[in-house]
Known about the structure:
This protein is mainly alpha-helical. It has two domains: 3-178 and 297-327, 3-Layer(aba) Sandwich (Rossmann fold), CATH 3.40.50; 202-293, Tyrosyl-Transfer RNA Synthetase (Orthogonal Bundle), CATH 1.10.240. The protein has helices at 16-29, 41-44, 51-68, 85-94, 99-103, 106-112, 121-135, 149-166, 212-221, 240-253, 257-264, 269-295, 298-327; strands at 3-8, 34-39, 76-79, 141-143, 175-177. Strand 1 (3-8), helix 1 and strand 2 (34-39) form a beta-alpha-beta unit. The protein is globular, with a radius of gyration of 21 Å. The chain starts with a strand and ends in a 5-residue tail after the last helix. The protein binds ligand 1. Ligand 1 is lined by residues 5-9, 17-18, 21-22, 40, 43, 130, 133-134, 142, 144-145, 147-148, 151, 183-185, 194-195. Catalyzes the attachment of tryptophan to tRNA(Trp).
Amino acid sequence: MKRIFSGVQPTGNLHLGNYLGAIRNWVRLQKDYESIFCVVDMHAITQWQDPAELSKSTREVTAAFIAAGIDPEACVIFHQSAVPGHAQLAWVFNCVARIGWLNRMTQFKEKAGKHKENASVGLFAYPALMAADILLYKGTHVPVGEDQKQHLELTRDIAQKFNNDFGREVFPITEPLILGAATRVMSLRDGSKKMSKSDTSDFSRINLTDDADLIAQKIRKAKTDPEPLPSEVAGLEGRPEAANLVGIFAALSDRTRDDVLTEAGGQPFSTFKQSLTDLAVETLGPMNAEMNRLLANPGEIDAILKRGAERAQAIAGPVLDEVYDTVGFLRV
Length: 332
Ligand code: TYM
């Protein structure tokens, strides 16, 4: 059986990187896989979140999933804290994962910054909770952007060690699905930095909530170099900002970068940016409208989350029972 699990943190505005690296791929995959999509609010609090903002953002991310085209009937959409098995399995995995494995996680190093002693224990244990998210449903495939690759390798290591330690094939060895022309969308201000929710400059990213004018302004101001576009991908070498815009264009238009450059090679950035703006507005505009419609009806969003949590719990319950029996926890 093939089952997808993936998640997004409700820590502020979703951006084009989240959409092209993850959510848009989910929309396509939902036809071929049993799919579970989660708003991971427990991951969000590994760094302090304003409580009112966290609740608001949980609804916004849910609305974005649906507005992007995820069918809440066909897929399970829910928020992590509503299914207690995530925390329960994460504890077991904290006892399976080795400190040395977690010490190697580059995202922890980036997020903890210079003073690692001041980071929360939760931030350090973050990847074990992520493994629990996926394996609580025996997820076989996980569609994500490139930045999650290391975490998914750790998920495989945890599954393997658990199975070995207890001599039972309880968990599948999960496959990452890193798909499309924009698996790592970069900042619009600096082609060496990932587009991120936490960047202090709003002009570094295109948010899914930005209107057409703001999208146009941000693309117009995006950093580029003085040369026109090359006509082949090899010509993007050493031009990270150009490579990023071409990657975004290719992903949005569902073409390869080669294809885009065959057509756009030789164009000045002013022309290319105008086409990119049109394309981005065409894609994001209708999503934005649908998100706003949903957010005006929070009751509708909450009902979807509630039903999703019930369906998630129905899958998670028997898996957690199996884990408890395997570990030797009495169920009386
Ligand atoms: P998060 O919330 O940072 O990002 C959500 C998804 O968006 C992708 N992404 C990007 N893709 C391309 N370019 C970018 N600039 C970019 N920025 C973000 C991420 O790769 C991700 O797919 N740890 C996860 C959340 C998580 C999870 C899980 C994912 C928790 N449990 C279980 C999969 C399975 C995270 O922080 O994603």
